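Design job #97: recover the sequence.
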């Protein structure tokens, strides 16, 4: 009995101490295979961290997509799709990425063709924002 209690307490302590963050499975709803879309524009909105936009450009490059980034008004008409994101940060002795939502939008129709997200749980960790951004973009490409 005592051994079971100690085991349960250790498991509970490990769960409470360890960070809980999740990159949720991505979604893709485009008519053409995502791999066939080779140009993109990442919208850097004034309210969000531009470093996340830079990370998305890097992630797209890893998937063979030529992309640029900047404000929405400068979005080129010839990009196959554009990317919008929302990043939210919190403070706990240091800033940490609390959540990230990424949307791929068809540049012709304006319809969302893909999405992915990252969320911290009740017990957060100090995840590397670049790595989580890469994982979110990868989740959209893996959604097929």
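Job complete. Output follows.
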């Amino acid at each position: 009995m005592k051994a079971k209690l100690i085991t349960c307490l250790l498991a509970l302590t490990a769960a409470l101490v360890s960070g809980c963050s999740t990159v949720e499975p991505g979604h893709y709803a485009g008519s053409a295979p995502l791999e066939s879309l080779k140009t993109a524009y990442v919208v850097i909105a004034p309210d969000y961290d531009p470093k996340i936009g830079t990370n998305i450009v890097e992630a797209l490059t890893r998937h063979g997509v030529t992309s640029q980034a900047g404000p929405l008004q400068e979005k080129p008409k010839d990009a196959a799709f554009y990317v919008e994101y929302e990043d939210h940060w919190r403070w706990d002795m240091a800033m940490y990425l609390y959540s990230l939502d990424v949307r791929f939008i068809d540049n012709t129709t304006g319809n969302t063709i893909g999405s992915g997200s990252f969320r911290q749980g009740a017990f957060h960790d100090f995840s590397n924002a670049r790595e989580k951004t890469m994982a979110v973009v990868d989740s959209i490409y893996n959604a097929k």
